[in-house]
Write a structure and sequence with these properties.
The complex is a heterodimer of chains A (458) and B (451). Helices cover 46% and strands 14% of the residues of chain A. With 458 residues, chain A is an alpha/beta fold. In chain A, the strands form 3 sheets. A 5-stranded parallel β-sheet of chain A has the order 12-11-10-13-14, with helices on both faces. In chain A, strands 3-2-4-5 form a 4-stranded parallel β-sheet, sandwiched between helices. In chain A, α4 (82-95) crosses α6 (116-125) and α12 (291-311) packs parallel to α17 (426-448). The radius of gyration of chain A is 23 Å and the shape is globular. The two termini of chain A are 33 Å apart. Chain B has a 6-stranded mixed β-sheet, with helices on both faces. Chain B has a 4-stranded parallel β-sheet with strand order 3-2-4-5, sandwiched between helices. A 4-stranded parallel β-sheet of chain B has the order 7-6-8-9, sandwiched between helices. In chain B, α11 packs antiparallel against α12 (290-318). In chain B, α16 (401-406) links the parallel β13 (393-396) and β14. The radius of gyration of chain B is 23 Å and the shape is globular. Chain B has 451 residues and is of the alpha/beta class. Chain B has helices spanning 41-49, 63-68, 93-98, 101-115, 126-131, 135-146, 162-176, 204-215, 229-233, 246-260, 272-285, 290-318, 330-342, 357-366, 379-388, 401-406, 424-439, 443-446; strands at 14-16, 55-60, 87-88, 119-124, 150-154, 192-198, 218-224, 240-243, 264-266, 322-327, 346-352, 372-375, 393-396, 410-413. Classes of the chains: A alpha/beta (458), B alpha/beta (451). At the A-B interface, β1, α1, α2, β3 and α3 of A face α1, α2, β3, α3 and α4 of B. Bound molecules: iron/sulfur cluster (SF4) (2 copies). One iron/sulfur cluster sits between chains B (61-65, 125-127) and A (24, 26, 49, 52, 106-107, 142). One iron/sulfur cluster (SF4) sits between chains B (61-65, 125-127) and A (24, 26, 49, 52, 106-107, 142).
Chain lengths: 458, 451
């Protein structure tokens, strides 16, 4: 019992978070920046935060993660970090020659109030930014929001700094995929091209954080959205933002800046949300859905039919990011499973409202909390056990202590592979999710059933 | 050869033995814009204190600092598991403006009432230093109200390097020492030591403790692997401090020398040579009890006999293979070089994040000609030398692992991600097996390398 100190009596806590279900803004910004080709994410603050962000991303993706830091000292925290950032810009362009430096702040540089655009201007005036190279920036104080907010902020900055409209429209659709895995971004691109649509997906970490083994360490892998393409986003006929929280801000900014109309959709996790995604793509681009996609849909449906008896009435506990949890809850309910405890660490009142709507027909009492933590989640489970847990790696403590089947999903996953290679979005992603859920449930059934109940065929 | 630029400012932090007179610069703050592999003060304090299992560890700051350090080291406990929780005041914008003192007070109040810990550590992170919360006075107040030590750990990240964090941790520990007493009723020996700088990753502290028990030496406290507050409080009743991770714990050893006149020795429990030496050094300290030396001889020879045949087999297979070492503390590197030699491997690169002049001089003495020595390296430099020197193995931490694998080279973790103990004689065998498995892995036959 590793979490033996978890009490089952639930008391209101205001001053204390125990076992967080979120982390801080800069890591989200760093992840988004890695989705630009030839980009070095730069953390403006002290070294520690940056080291933690890099380590956590490295552990989750099992890939080299580059980023740089302003390496604040006590001096910089008193006099400001201008000198550090200018020196950093100079050094980075001279030594590593990136296309873009994407600067984000940390709690420290935010609190002392460094003005990044002004510093960047100064660097430019001093000739520290080579021609044709870019610096973009976003503010990511971690006492606001969570890693999802950081992702959203950096994605919006890509639009603010780089998107350009030139009056006429290309037959191309922008897709902002949300805070999802590189594999998901790849799958979104595949589906789009299957429909015959030209698209710009940004950020795009596929081939950056799920690259092949080549025998060589490459600082800038060949993946990522190019600056060229980011500029062209202003000339696309429309934008689909997947996940309101992670992608909404950038999509709206693009609409305001370059008059590219946007649709805000749920992340395409599960049958219904994927239907909506594909249908919207079809309408915006004016294309037909090809057979290949219909076949995939049918296959997903087929699995649900074949195995639906094992889903029926199962209670599930979910921890994760808001955008993911909304689609996931809908998906689970559509296959007759019931999310009963749902926690996200990310703040945002709308989340609770959305989940309440989605679960309104639930036969069980549903616990939802935004800005919650895993301690509370565990307490809920102690009071009302569930049949399945879905969440990031940290959930494994609860799964073990309470002996509940567990499917890893979300961020971070530090102890398994697969998430960066196999998508959970789209119909195929849905098939993978179901496979994982079934494996967990049926392995448990095989383990627990008595000799008389043990079956060969399921 | 890969053509890369080395930052001008960094040129003096890289040295190739035999090629130039030794003049390595280190102990420098990393340059802004370099892609350093280093961490912060808080990181240093957290890793030292975290394994104390019956204490409360509250991170006072915004959520990230706590989230990233939640059970990251997997230091094992034989009893309570309070250290595996992540407690944070999770400061918000409002707190940054109006101060987080009230929150800290409330959080401590709730936690101490709920868990009745033996002590509480409050880690002050960057933001707390900037907004100026009076953490000391709150801790003092809490101590009084609750009757347990509530210790502030000043680990504001920007105030220095990981080393300063070690120092802050030592200062907190030192406040505990001398507050308690071991049980004197029983026939306890006067041959008592503290083990310093051992964190019980993969149960290493248990292996070492077991050796000491076998040779007849009593361990008063381990700092801080599988540690208990009461043991630390009695640490002043030991007559010798045996310091392993000297980078982190020498400060405490020095403080205890000064106040309690307890001498200390530096040891390493890694590699046959060093672990034997550690045990002999301790028995030499207790020379008025010849039995301890006798026991040590017996223990060392039987332990070596146990693992020797298998080590020889591995050595044959690995003979002449090349290793690159990049670790946190330089002291670790010394033992690694010796251990690698024992299994037939050559060290072609060695670097650390936090070594000082003396460490690097010693490294230079230990290394063969042609070995590259680096301080505070970045991934490009590392990959460049790995290619140039044709390494077959990289020994490093989290961030080096994927770099090695991408290049088609074996990897052994010698930092946070360890699961199998490397300490002691059995640890040497574990290490050899792990190195063998990764260097000789069939996967490299299919993998491109150094394209
Ligand atoms: S905020 Fe400061 S203490 Fe926290 S991780 Fe960053 S550098 Fe370290
Ligand atoms: S919460 Fe703030 S201070 Fe802590 S790691 Fe994140 S950015 Fe750094």
């Amino acid at each position: 019992m590793l979490l033996r100190h978890t009490t089952d009596k639930i008391v209101e806590r205001h001053a204390l978070t125990v076992n967080p279900a979120k982390t801080c803004q800069p890591i989200g910004a760093m992840y988004a920046s890695l989705g630009i080709r030839g980009c070095i994410p730069h953390s403006h603050g002290s070294q520690g935060c940056y080291a933690y962000h890099r380590s956590t991303l490295t552990r989750h993706y099992k890939e080299p993660v580059i980023a740089a830091t302003s390496s604040f000292t006590e001096g910089s925290s008193v006099f400001g970090g201008q000198a550090n950032l200018i020196q950093a810009i100079d050094n980075l362009f001279t030594i590593y020659s990136p296309e873009v430096i994407a600067v984000h702040t940390t709690c420290l540089s935010e609190t002392i109030g460094d003005d990044i655009p002004q510093i960047v201007k100064k660097a430019e005036a001093e000739g520290k930014i080579p021609k044709g190279k870019y610096i973009i920036h976003t503010n990511t104080p971690s006492y606001v929001g969570s890693h999802v907010t950081g992702f959203s902020n950096m994605t919006k900055s890509m639009v603010d700094y780089l998107s350009q409209g030139n009056g006429h429209k290309e037959k191309c659709i922008n897709i902002i995929p949300g805070f999802v895995e590189p594999s998901d971004m790849e799958e979104i691109k595949r589906i789009t091209s299957e429909l015959g649509i030209k698209s710009i997906v940004f950020p795009d970490t596929s081939n950056v954080l799920n690259g092949p083994m080549t025998g060589k360490y490459k600082m800038f892998p060949k993946g990522g959205v190019t600056v060229e393409d980011l500029k062209k986003t202003g000339c696309s006929i429309g934008t689909l933002a997947l996940g309101r929280l992670a992608s909404g801000a950038a999509a709206r900014a693009l609409d305001t800046k370059c008059k590219v109309p946007c649709e805000l959709l749920d992340l395409p996790i599960g049958l219904e949300a994927t239907d909506t995604f594909i249908d919207t793509l079809r309408q915006v681009a004016g294309v037909h859905v090809p057979d290949s996609i219909n076949i995939e849909r049918g296959q997903l449906l087929d699995i649900i039919c074949d195995m639906h008896q094992y889903f029926y009435g199962k209670k599930v506990g979910l921890v994760g990011d808001p955008d993911q949890l909304i689609s996931l809850s809908k998906f689970l309910i559509s296959i007759d499973m019931w999310p009963v405890h749902i926690v996200t660490g990310t703040p945002g009142k709308k989340f609770e409202k959305r989940i309440r709507e989605i679960t309104k027909d639930s036969p069980y009492k549903v616990n939802v909390k935004q800005s919650g933590d895993m301690f509370l989640f565990h307490q809920w489970i102690k009071n009302e056990p569930v049949d399945l847990l879905i969440g990031n790696t940290y959930v494994k403590y609860i799964a073990r202590d309470e002996d509940i089947p567990f499917v890893r999903f979300g961020f971070p996953i530090l102890d398994r592979v697969g998430h960066s290679f196999f998508p959970t979005v789209g119909y195929r992603g849905g098939m993978r999710l179901l496979e994982k859920i079934l494996d967990a449930l049926l392995d448990r059934k095989d383990r627990d059933s008595s000799e008389t109940e043990f079956e060969l065929v399921m | 050869m890969t053509a890369i630029h080395i930052l001008k400012e960094r040129e003096k932090q890289i040295y190739e033995k035999g090629s130039q007179p030794f003049d390595l610069t280190c102990d420098k703050h990393s340059i802004a814009g370099s892609i350093s592999q280093r961490a912060c003060v808080f990181c240093g304090s957290r890793v030292v204190l975290y394994p104390i299992a019956d204490a409360l560890h509250l991170v006072h700051g915004p959520i990230g600092c706590a989230a990233y350090t939640w059970d990251i080291r997997g230091a094992l406990s034989s009893g309570p598991q309070l250290h595996r929780f992540s407690f944070s005041t999770d400061l918000k914008e409002k707190d940054v403006i109006f101060g987080g003192e009230k929150k800290l007070y409330q959080a401590l109040n709730t936690l101490i009432d709920t868990y009745s810990p033996k002590a509480a550590f409050v880690y002050a992170t960057c933001i707390v230093g900037i907004i100026g919360d009076d953490v000391d006075s709150i801790c003092k107040k809490m101590s009084k109200e609750k009757g347990i030590p509530v210790l502030p750990v000043h680990s504001e990240g920007f105030k220095g390097t990981k080393k300063d964090g070690y120092k802050a941790a030592c200062e907190a520990l030192f406040k505990l020492v001398g507050q308690g007493s071991i049980n004197h009723d029983s026939e306890t020996s006067k041959f008592r030591i503290n083990i310093l700088g051992e964190f019980n990753i993969g149960g290493e502290a248990w292996i070492i403790k077991n050796y000491y028990e076998k040779i007849g030496v009593q361990v008063v406290s381990v700092m801080t692997g599988d540690s208990r507050i009461d043991d630390i409080k009695s640490a002043h009743e030991a007559s010798l401090n045996v310091v392993q991770c000297s980078g982190s714990m020498t400060t405490l050893a020095k403080m205890m020398k000064e106040k309690y006149d307890i001498p200390f020795i530096r040891v390493s429990y890694f590699g046959i040579e060093d672990v034997s030496k550690a045990l002999y050094d301790v028995s030499a300290h207790f020379k008025d009890n010849p039995q301890i030396l006798e026991n040590t001889k017996k223990l060392v020879s039987s332990e070596i006999q146990n693992i020797y045949p298998e080590l020889q087999k591995i050595k044959k297979a690995l003979f002449g293979k090349k290793a690159a070492i990049y670790v946190g503390g330089a002291f670790k590197a010394f033992s690694l070089i010796k251990a690698l030699r024992l299994i037939g491997m050559d060290v072609v690169l060695v670097g650390s994040q936090t070594g000082d002049q003396d460490d690097y001089k010693m490294l230079k003495e230990l290394c063969d000609d042609g070995t590259v020595i680096v301080d505070d390296a970045n991934p490009l430099e590392l990959s460049k030398y790995i290619v140039e020197k044709k390494a077959d193995l990289v020994i490093g931490g989290v961030k080096e692992r994927p770099i090695a694998y991408k290049m088609g080279i074996g990897f052994c973790d010698h930092n946070h991600e360890r699961k199998i103990p490397l300490a002691g004689f059995i640890g040497m065998l574990n290490f050899a097996k792990e190195v063998y498995a990764t260097v000789m892995s069939p996967v490299w036959k299919f993998a491109p390398r150094h394209l």
